[in-house]
Design a protein that fits this description.
- The complex is a heterodimer.
- Chain A has one helix and 16 strands.
- By secondary structure, chain A is mainly β.
- Chain A has a domain of 85 residues: Immunoglobulin-like (Sandwich), CATH 2.60.40.420.
- In chain A, a hairpin with a 2-residue loop joins strand 14 and strand 15.
- By secondary structure, chain B is mostly beta strands.
- In chain B, strands 5-6-7-8-9-10-11-12-13-14-15-16-17-18-19-23 form a 16-stranded antiparallel β-barrel. A two-stranded antiparallel sheet of chain B has the order 1-2.
- The longest helix of chain B has 18 residues.
- Classes of the chains: A mainly beta, B mainly beta.
- Chains A and B meet through strand 10 of A and loops of B.
Chain lengths: 191, 434
């Protein structure tokens, strides 16, 4: 009985010590909070231009539904593979122009095709069947980005402390500001 | 005492009624803009059709808000290709454009009553005198258009006149350089009869001809015009125009020689000629008639009418203008010197001098008082005018205008205009737009 209690206590202490060590190893950082004033906030992105470190892309999705790409703007880390899904009853095409150029061809409902974005920059996503459709994929260097909410407010969390250029993107136009992110707490920026 | 007072009231009301009768003013307010932005006419007009400073900037931006146009449009355009196709052009695809969601058509109807004691018909009702179809709007971010088709009813006949019809292309991101092509009032016209005039009587500097069938500024021309507007840091800014047109007098152009004109003006202080220069929080519909500023400008026009030496008329115009806003008062005027070379008959050279000065005062936001003095004198006895034009214009509603004027000539010898004799009288007009 005493041995069991002792083992349990020992385990909790070990877990606690591991937690302290892990949190100490994780990079700390502050948050970048602010407001972006644009007519359609869901079509904007705020991001930190360059952060020291190696970052890896993951997976993301973009849908075609009711002849509209969704989301309108998709920020991804370089190396991300984006899956394009056709959710409409009619054929769609996906091709990209800008920092990356590709054409995935035409396909029908329910089918998805992928493309991996390995070049930094802005890529316009278009459909050559429906010229009114468009979206943008912003291929970024790091994962420190956010999309504003309906009131224009945004928060980029856990940014390593330091001085950075923060950019706001809206319909192909960008504005930038230079800020200092603290080790803890937050810094406010407005566009 | 009571009977005397009653008489005074009745006579005053009758005089007011008489005064209200005629003013035939060409309509140029366009409700389709009000519909597009869901805003009142007074956002852009002191009193339709006279533009305020915001309206001038709207026009200079190709019938768009100078800042954040997308934010204020309540009827989004129908895209013909998304903006991303600009990256594909020219190798693949068509440069994207847009058309307006609704047909940008408006109408203006004018009911006019003329009182002319010395004419055979002393009181004449013209109900309606004119019906205009107005259309204007944008085609994407770089193109815009304006059209004005007028149906004039005189006696038993109907005249149809395309007063204006033109396409404008903005060549630069800002309104600094634009190309207009079509049928339009030239940029050399000292003060526009469509966007500045509040009276039926046109500005004499625009209305006079030096010879029968000769040139006058109010004739619309067909051709091309380069024009632009640029803000200055302290407000106001620069506006200019350069044009090459067919040239026409009382009839269409009848030679291959083209007319040329140039104009420039600079506005000190006041609202920017190209817009506010900063994002707008909202559209304002009140007190937009206040714009303390002074604008000075100059213009010149050179042209030729006739297709042979026997009927050729060579003419040029040069002059300057001043336009000052002081609180509710707008003082403006222009001087034009004209020179005609006519080989057909009489002394070949004809010199003309014309000028006017006008004061418009916003008495109340819906009432504007008008007083103009003007004169024009030519060499050949074809033109000698000295007159005052007092008037008043009232917005019964933002799109219903009641106006009156009573031109007074300084004697019979000073009422010769374009070969005809003008008479004292009065004009009342009721115009409504929808």
């Amino acid at each position: 009985m005493r041995k069991a209690i002792g083992t349990i206590i020992y385990s909790f202490l070990l877990i606690g010590l591991l937690a302290v060590l892990v949190s100490a190893a994780l990079p700390g950082g502050g948050d970048i909070i602010g407001t972006l004033t644009v007519p359609k906030t869901d079509q904007a992105v705020v991001y930190v231009e360059t952060v020291t470190g190696a970052f890896h892309g993951e997976h993301a999705k973009m849908d075609q539904r009711n002849k509209v790409f969704s989301p309108y703007v998709l920020p991804v880390v370089k190396g991300t593979t984006v899956e394009f899904i056709n959710s409409d009853e009619l054929q769609h095409n996906v091709f990209g122009v800008g920092a990356d150029e590709f054409n995935l061809g035409n396909w029908t409902k329910g089918i998805a095709r992928e493309h991996t974005f390995n070049k930094l920059g802005e890529v316009a996503i278009l459909c050559n069947v429906h010229p009114e459709m468009e979206a943008y994929i912003l291929v970024l260097q790091n994962p420190y980005f956010a999309k504003p909410d309906s009131s224009g407010k945004f928060r980029i969390e856990d940014v390593p402390p330091g001085e950075y250029v923060v950019k706001a993107w809206y319909h192909g136009k960008t504005k930038k500001q230079t800020i200092k992110v603290p080790a803890t707490g937050s810094v406010t920026v407005a566009f | 005492m009571k009977r005397s007072f009653a008489k005074v009231v009745i006579v005053s009301l009758m005089l007011l009624l008489v005064v209200l009768v005629f003013s035939t003013r060409r309509a140029s307010a366009i409700p389709s803009f009000a519909r597009r932005y869901e805003t009142a006419c007074t956002t852009c007009h002191v009193l339709p059709p006279k533009l305020n400073a915001f309206g001038v900037a709207f026009k200079n931006n190709g019938y768009r808000m100078s800042e954040d146009d997308e934010k204020f449009i309540k009827q989004p355009d129908i895209p013909m290709g998304s903006p991303g196709w600009k990256k594909v052009w020219p190798k693949g695809g068509v440069w994207p454009g847009a058309i307006q969601d609704r047909v940008p058509l408006s109408a203006a109807i004018e009911l006019v009553t003329d009182v002319a004691p010395k004419e055979p018909v002393k009181v004449d009702f013209a109900f309606p005198e004119e019906v205009e179809l107005l259309m204007g709007g944008t085609l994407g971010s770089r193109f815009s258009f304006f059209g004005d088709l007028a149906f004039e009813f005189e006696g038993g006949s109907t005249n149809v006149d395309l007063e204006r019809g033109h396409l404008n292309m903005r060549l630069t991101e800002s309104p600094l350089l634009n190309l207009r092509m079509g049928r339009f009032e030239t940029g050399a016209t000292p003060f526009s009869r469509f966007t500045y005039r509040l009276t039926d009587k046109d500005f004499i500097v625009s209305d006079f001809r030096a010879v029968d069938g000769g040139f006058r500024f109010r004739s619309r021309q067909q051709g091309f015009e380069l024009w632009g507007a640029k803000n200055s840091p302290g407000g106001g800014g620069l506006q200019y125009s350069l044009g090459l047109v067919n040239g026409s007098g009382s009839s269409n152009d009848d030679n291959s020689h083209k007319d040329f004109y140039a104009s420039g003006s600079y506005k000190f202080r006041g609202y920017g000629v190209a817009g506010a220069g900063k994002p707008l929080d909202s559209l304002k519909s009140t007190e937009n008639y206040i714009d303390n500023s002074v604008e000075v400008g100059a213009f010149t026009y050179i042209g030729r009418l006739g297709d042979s030496p026997s009927n050729e008329i060579r003419y040029n115009r040069a002059g300057f203008k001043v336009n000052a806003y002081i609180k509710r008062l707008n003082l403006f005027g222009a001087y034009v010197h004209g020179r005609e070379l006519v080989l057909e008959s009489g002394p070949p050279r004809i010199n003309t001098n014309a000028w006017f000065a006008e004061g418009d005062v916003v008495i109340l936001p819906w009432i504007t008082g008008i007083f103009r003095y003007e004169q024009a004198i030519g060499d050949r006895g074809f033109l000698q005018v000295k007159r005052v034009v007092p008037g008043v214009s009232m917005m019964l509603r933002a799109n219903i205008i009641l106006s009156a004027e009573a031109p007074v000539y300084f004697g019979d010898k000073n009422s010769l205009l374009n070969g005809g004799t003008e008479h004292n009288g009065a004009a009342f007009r009721l115009a409504f737009f929808f």
